[in-house]
Amino acid sequence: MPSPIDVLIVGAGLSGLVAARRLLAEGLTVRVLEARERVGGRMVSATTADGSVVDLGGQWGGASHHRFEALLKELGIGRFPSHYGGKGVFHWRGRRLEAPLAHHFADSLLFFEPQALDLPPAELTATSALQRAFAALVAQVDPRQPWRTPDAERLDRLTVAQWAAQHTNLPLAQLPLDWLCRLGGSGGFEPWEASILHLAWTQAVAPQAETPEAWLVRGGAGAVAQRLAAELAAQAGASLQLGRAVHTIAQDHQGVSVVERTGQTHRARAAIVAVPPPQRLAIQFDPPLPPAHRALLQRSPMGAMTKILASYARPFWRDRGLNGLGIGDRPALELTADSGPPEGQPALIASFLAGERALSLGALPAPQRRQLILDDLAAYWGPEAAEPLDLVEQDWNAEPFSGGAFTSFLTPGTWTSHARLAANPQGGPAPADHGRVLWAGTEVSPRWPGYFEGAIEAGERAASGIGATLTAKPPP
Description:
By secondary structure, this protein is an alpha/beta fold. The protein has 16 helices and 20 strands.
């Protein structure tokens, strides 16, 4: 058995690495176990065949993502603004419409200036009315304890699709809510898979109106995880071990025993588990997790998402006064975004297969799926878009230690039942601590869950709670 340490961290994604960094700064000894043969979790970059560095997972930082911004400064990593200059493309019912972006998301139709879109006025009016009704609901949500929202039980049993249908049956009017479900930062689910309370909560704690896709990391966001891992490896009292999937976490009055699937055992005074919620179900806890906590995990599936990255010799769309933001009802791609720096090299467009289509199109033969993707890129940006230098697909649902992206979501009825019963005293999406075991990972953050900012806050919060946990008794 390796020498005992103060804190063992399960998961070397951003949240786990940040927790380790904080604990080391406080003079504690730390060991990080990562099931993959790499660090970063859903924060990972790759180099394409043409030499471009692309982010296979998360990539954006937001206007109010102050923790993430500060971390980049500490690590000496640069950033650049997302390219939103010029017009975007809204594709609807077979029509390609170019339009400028609205100054404020609340006044937009999915970022676009509504009056600049050549769409039926009555449908635009209905769309605006539904958005106002949703905004009013978001304003009522208790972000720390959603179950205390007025009329919470009814709203938690009503799917997004059902709530929208009570207001209008116009597809255009329902599109913004459908899009937030599948492609908002807490997306990857269909409007019939989660409650309207859950969707409203996602916008209360991670509002699209605060521009969460305002900037990108120079050299790729994956460099952040690599830099943190290098820092960790260079410090005394720290170790990072890859390919170490955890099977069991047992507690007694002296601390925790963490057992890998290989049988290797580690001893620590406390543990932080920084993996997506469904991944906790793969770990055997002794004493077991409370029934409400296990029920919550069973009702917290990961979003379905495949990320697509197309690289080009130049950002030809910018030459035409276009900004690369494409949104619409195309068969494959409901969102595209310019992911390149101001200088235009590398020239990149990121796009996504989201929700059910991520699974259904993911089951197609690769050449057929590739053609659907290229057809949609061409529909948004013209024939040149169908001839990228490289086209990269990252299927996050095929990642065994992620199970999906961007984050998990709660099924209807869960917030007002299992999440309420499993909640920690401070409220929010994190369940109560389990004796000497604390929870991290972006999903448990009370602010910006599903984003890098949330991962950092969750890691810092877990690290700050370790002091009291070092003397905690095991659960009964």
